[in-house]
């Protein structure tokens, strides 16, 4: 457990907590800046009034961070669902592509068989039809490959957005914790100042 002495609004306070000393100092500095900012904007405020306004501002920051955190969590869920959907679509396209490739190979084998025995017009027609079928399969193959590449790109983009949202949530959680600690310290100071009167 860490124990540090900090200054808030030109008064020293002893803080104890499970967090590191640097963190406790950062929280105290944050609250100190908030109180000083409020008192600079209205010099007629008492310390207790400034502390209450600071507590309200910190609570406001805390609530907003919480709402934003919820929005980001919802966005992450949407991104995860999009990734699952994209993967499923990619799997379906890969299966279809495999089938197309198998059919193409079968058609190529038939074309080669017909080319060996090119002695009738009928076989020439069959070769032409099979060649057209192979070309059609090739076009479909290219279309599926293009679709798979697009889905891979979309999937990569979704993963990046998901990672970015996770980092934002981690940052908001840290701010949320800082806000809670600052709010608790401000409440203590308000109670202390009220008791002094």
UniProtKB/TrEMBL annotation:
GO terms for cellular component: cell division site; cell septum; cytosol. Gene3D superfamilies: 6.10.250.790. GO terms for biological process: division septum assembly; FtsZ-dependent cytokinesis; septin ring assembly. Keywords: Cell cycle, Cell division, Coiled coil, Cytoplasm, Septation. It comes from Clostridium pasteurianum DSM 525 = ATCC 6013. This is Cell division protein ZapA. Residues 69-175 form a coiled coil. Activator of cell division through the inhibition of FtsZ GTPase activity, therefore promoting FtsZ assembly into bundles of protofilaments necessary for the formation of the division Z ring. It is recruited early at mid-cell but it is not essential for cell division.
